[in-house]
Design a protein that fits this description.
This protein has seven helices and three strands; from the N terminus they run H-H-H-E-H-H-E-E-H-H. The chain is elongated.
């Protein structure tokens, strides 16, 4: 069996280990954080590339994504979307105007309350979102494909343990 190669995190830890003489420095903790950060950057970059290849701006993709993964897929109020995205109602209006001009969403007056507006994804909006999701999914599968089924299960379990701690 060939010896394991060093990665960027190993080289980073080796460089910084001796700089922290007066501070506790745990090689494993530093390597974990650095590796997670690099993986996040990879997924962020692959998302940007997928979104661009699908013909979307990132803000358009994010809005369509949150619209389509709701408990009511493809339908929401503008204020619900604004809250989910963490933007102002005015900012949401601008996003919806752009999406509507592109033909990816439509606004309808609520049947129950004519003062309320409902946002709905159009067939074209679903298609462009799925195109971006497919490209994004390929990049995710390519990286995660390095792991065996057992390794994926273990990694998912360990990451869940960390996210549950964050959610406390």
């Amino acid at each position: 069996m060939a010896p394991e190669r060093d990665d960027w995190a190993d080289r980073h830890v080796a460089r910084w280990r001796d700089h922290w003489i007066d501070v506790a420095f745990d090689d494993d903790v530093e390597a974990i954080i650095v590796r997670i950060s690099r993986i996040v950057r990879y997924f962020r970059k692959s998302k940007q590339e997928a979104v661009e290849a699908a013909g979307l701006q990132e803000s358009e993709y994010d809005t369509l994504h949150l619209l389509l993964i709701r408990d009511t897929p493809g339908q929401a109020t503008p204020s619900d979307l604004a809250e989910d995205l963490g933007i102002s109602n005015a900012g949401m209006t601008g996003r919806l105007d752009s999406l509507e001009r592109a033909g990816w969403i439509q606004r309808r007056t609520s049947a129950e309350d004519r003062r309320r507006v409902q946002v709905e994804a159009t067939k074209a909006g679903v298609e462009v979102w799925r195109r971006a999701m497919d490209l994004r999914g390929r990049a995710e599968d390519e990286l995660i494909g390095e792991l065996s089924t057992q390794e994926r299960t273990e990694l998912a379990r360990l990451l869940k343990k960390l996210t549950l701690r964050l959610e406390e």
